Amino acid sequence: MLKQRSHLTSVLAVAMLGIAACGSATKAPTRTPTPTASPSATAGTPTPTPVPTPVPLAAPIMIQVENIDAARPQSGLSQADVVYEYQTEGGISRFTTIFFHNPTGQVGPVRSARLATIKLLGIWGGTLLFSGASNYVSRMLDSSGYRHFNETSAAGALYRIGSRFAPHNLYTDGGHLAAFEQRLRPLTVGYQLWPRTPIASLPPSGFNPIGKFQVPISQSERPIFTYDPATQSYTRVEPQTGQLNDANGGGPWRPTTIVVLQTKITIGPEVEDVSGTHGLDFALVYGIGDGQVFVGGQQYPVKWFQGPSGPPQLTQIGGQPAPIGPGQVLVELVPSGQTVIPR
After folding, report:
1. Are 199 and 325 in contact (CB under 8 A)?
2. Please, what is the average pLDDT of the chain?
């Protein structure tokens, strides 16, 4: 669902503010990459084939969304371009949703940041919206130099709804995010997203197709994914609450590509709750390990490598890049040694 629609209105607003303050404005990035225009041809002279020049991406908005029984059904998961899921304390999981375009509806419930969030924020170069964090994580965020805004500093971009009890009632939406971005200095990122392969053009995986599998995120968070050929996407079932739907529209959440990364996880120094439970730290930056890519009902075993910025590199056994389908990519971080379980 990488729509990459242009934020023309917010860009123009920022540019006008720059003109008023400085007398000139730097051209702001666009969220809709376009190839370089072809040069004019002289009669009788062969026209060279233009090489597309990557257009800088506008930095994404990254929003923390919780995943416990009381948070379901969440809003806005279906509209994110990339979603990471990882274990927090007590076996529960959390989503970091990454938007390269503005959502059209609500996103939430918005919850707190973790150590993994800070690493993802640095990797993707985005602007983080979250409810808060432990004292340790807050200090790490404040010293990181990354853009981050909690319920107070977001100054209205995050709001409480009346249909849910706190703390599961903090939300944002496309309109509030558009106004929020107008107040920010535009940022670009230097990476490009994965090339996409149409489902009909997927290469043979060399392994038996897997249409249904379970992901062992933790001892208690073990969602089951089932491939739906009609929509060329995966549905998700939580063992405790059944099918995971998106409250925006009520239909099932349908990621197109699921990337499972076996990741080294250690106990973090921060205490995350009143019981004294420590958080978890994930070896992401310059991390490497085994993984699997699920797309089109096929499984592609991969080796993954995460550089300092941009999406992780996913390489098949033969050295070819793993195929990534059109639409949303869900990245699941699981402990090293854990693999998916066919169902």
Report:
1. yes
2. 86
